[in-house]
Amino acid sequence: MTAGARAARIGTLERRYLNGTFAELCRIESPxxxxxxxxxxxxxxxxxxxISVAEDDAGAxxxxxxxxxxxxxxxxxxxxxEDGPRRSVALCAxxxxxxxxxxxxPVLEDGIWENANEGILGADNKAAVAVLLALARHICxxxxxxxxxxxxxxxxxxxxxxxxxxxxxxxxxxxxxxxxHASPIGEVVVGSPCHFRIEASFRGAAAxxxxxxxxxxxxxxxxALAIAAIRHGSLEGEGTVNVGTISGGSAINVVPERxxxxxxxxxxxxxxxxxxxxEIVERLHEAANRPECECDVDISVQRTFSGYRLEESSxxxxxxxxxxxxxxxxxxxxxxxxxxxxxxxxxxxxxxxNLANGTERSHEPGERVSARALEEMLxxxxxLLDEVAARDPGVAL
Length: 397
Hints:
Elements lengths: L2 H6 L3 H16 L8 H11 L6 E3 L2 H5 L6 E5 L14 E7 L11 E4 L2 E4 L7 H20 L4 E7 L7 H5 L9 E7 L5 E6 L1 E10 L3 E2 L10 H11 L3 E3 L3 E10 L5 E2 L2 E10 L2 H20 L6 E10 L2 E2 L5 H12 L5 E4 L5 H7 L3 E6 L11 E3 H19 L8
Parallel strand pairs: 3-6, 3-7, 7-18, 8-17
Antiparallel strand pairs: 1-2, 2-6, 4-5, 5-19, 8-16, 8-18, 9-14, 9-15, 10-13, 11-12, 12-14
C-alpha cells in the first residue's frame, strides 16, 4: 500500500478527533504520581467503544493516585482461529508528564501545537496517548488484522516507576512498541543507556560566620568541591553525567552544617555506567575529606533502570521499519541517551521497540508537535498492525 493510500485510511473526522483529543489531554494536569484524571479520560474514551480497561496495583506500590491501564481489542480473523495462536501486538504510552511550570493551554498556529503559556505542552507523551485512542476508534470501526493490547503507564518520568511495577507476563503479545522519543518520525531506537541515581548528604559543623568561622566546617564547600571535581556532560564512549540539584545551609551568617546533592549517570552499557558511578562516589569522599572541609558524607547509589541493545535482525525492528517505509518514511536506527518504558519492559524479557513520535523540545517550555506529526504517527501505527500481521507468529524472537 502506498503512502498516499495509507493516509487515505484516516478520514477528516478522525484527524479532527485525533487533534482535538490531543489538546484536551494536554489540558489535563497529570504530573508523575497524579495521573488519575488523565487515566479517567482514557477510560471514558475506550468505554463507549466496548473496550474494557484493567488497572493494576502499581499506583499503591509507587505512590501514585493511579495504576497502569491495560486494554485489549480483538482483531478480525486473527491467525489460528478461535483455538489456535493469535497474532497480537502491544502498544504503550505513558500518562504522566514532568512538572508543568505553567498551566497548559494548547494553541495551534501554522499547523504546530504549542502551549500558549511558558511551560511544557505535555506532548511527551500525550501525543502517543491521543494516537492510541484514535487507533482504538479506527480499528473498532474498521477492524484490525491482529489483536491489539494498549498499555498506558504511570510514573514514567520518575525512572520508569510504573512500567517497572507492571507485570509484563500479563501481555499476550510476542513484542510491543512505545512511541516516546522526541525526534523526527522514522527514527527507531535500538539502544538505550542504563541509569544510576546518586544522592549525597554532607554534614559539617555550624558556626557564626563572622565571629567563629574557624570553628565551622562548611558542608556547602564540600559539595561545591565535589561538583567541581566531577566530570560533567557527555563523556565520549562512556555515557553522560549530570548534577541536577544542590541544597543546603540555613542563613547567610551561619557556616552551613548540611548540604545535599543529587546526580545521575547514564552509561552506554552496564560496565561504563558502574564505572562512572564509582568515580562520582570517589570524588564525593575526596571532597568531604579535604582539610578545608572535614565533613562526613552519606552516599546512596541506585540503579534505576537497565540499558539495552536490540539485535540487528530483531523482528520487531524489522516490522517497524517496514511500516515506516510503507508510510513514506526512511527508517534510521539510533542510540538514545534517554530511557523509556521500553527499558523496563525489556528488563522483564518483553521485547519492545521505542519509536520516534515527531515531538520536539520535550521537558522544555516551547515543547511542540505538529498536527501532521500526530496524523503521521497514527498512519505508521496502522501500518505497523499490517506488518506485524504479515509475520509468522511461530518464529522465535
